[in-house]
Please model this.
Amino acid sequence: MAHQVRAVVSRSVKQPVEVVTINVPDPGAGEALVRPQATGVCHTDLHYREGGINDEFPFLLGHETAGIVEAVGEGVVHVAPGDFVVLNWRAVCGECRACRKGVPRNCFDTHNATQPMTLDDGTPLTAALGIGSFAELTLVAAGQCTKVPQVDPAAAGLLGCGVMAGFGAAVNTGELQRGETIAVFGCGGVGDAAIAGAVVAGATTIIAVDLDERKLEWAKGFGATHTVDASKVDPVEAIRELTHGEGAHKTLDCSSAPTARRAAVQAVRAWGTACFVGERGMVEFDVSNDILRRQVTLVGSWTFSKQGQAECAEFVADHDIAVDRLFTHRWRLDQAEEAYKLFDSQTTGKAVILPNG
Ligand SMILES: NC(=O)c1ccc[n+]([C@@H]2O[C@H](COP(=O)([O-])OP(=O)(O)OC[C@H]3O[C@@H](n4cnc5c(N)ncnc54)[C@H](O)[C@@H]3O)[C@@H](O)[C@H]2O)c1
Ligand SMILES: [Zn+2]
Ligand SMILES: [Zn+2]
Model:
């Protein structure tokens, strides 16, 4: 039986999102039907709407989610109806070459639900990051559900994407060491999580870079020791000044701005690591000799780079990091376009949508 529920859909590029009725099938073998309680507004959903990910419209948006399992399909044993879960966009297969080698984070064949969710007229929807959780119900591969202790769903949902991405980039991919300096470009949900991760890793100088004074103020609340307003000064020069002319040991681009990506490479010191976390920022510049001579490492970090959600949840709990401090707005499903407009104009901090609120 298909369930008819309300959901946020992006029908075509750069057009406002709409709240429409969609059909969500009952779970088949290996699938789970989940009732999202909270879904964070992540910049990646905006990239979908702007045509920056691919052109497989219509998209069912939303992916940073915690919710309750409503029903499971045949063969599903690790989660059951009533479980509180975080949804993850990479459910590893356990069978491919990477999984067999014991490196599941590099899995080539992560799982999503096989049955499509559809518009009322039967048009299949592309679920953002294989989740699609700005919806009263969503269908995922059961392996995408990580059972976690019941906490504020808004905070738990962030473990599904932004918090993992920021923490993971600073602590794992960037391998930030005690006493090192780090510069974080872009202080939204992802960048602030990276700053909180830098504190835990023991970085002594944590430089937050943004174009917006309010974002820089919030970043201080997460542990930034210095701030740089890149709308007023050259961030590369400012970072060098703050690091005795050398540049930061580690730089992270957590914006989606090409200029920030370039600056992250330029502001890292010799033998340092520049890490790209922000998506989409197409940037062309000649780094070959610069990287070669300064022996800089350039690395990409994708949410699951080195850490699974369960470990991330433990990490956040163990270090008593108040993820919910990220939130500035909580919205209803029918306020999604309003939320996107504010988010796009960079006038909010982290926003969350309560699909069943
Ligand atoms: N790699 C991953 O696994 C992963 C996971 C989640 C999100 N992302 C990506 O990370 C990026 C950030 O996501 P978010 O949800 O935190 O977005 P956000 O919009 O909340 O934050 C981006 C921040 O960058 C700032 N910014 C814009 N241009 C800048 C510039 N030139 N210099 C410095 N700061 C600048 C903005 O003011 C804003 O505060 C997006 O591109 C998103 O798609 C990547
Ligand atoms: Zn995301
Ligand atoms: Zn695999």
In short: Residues 4 and 215 are 39 Å apart (CA to CA). The longest helix spans residues 189-201. The longest strand covers residues 31-40.
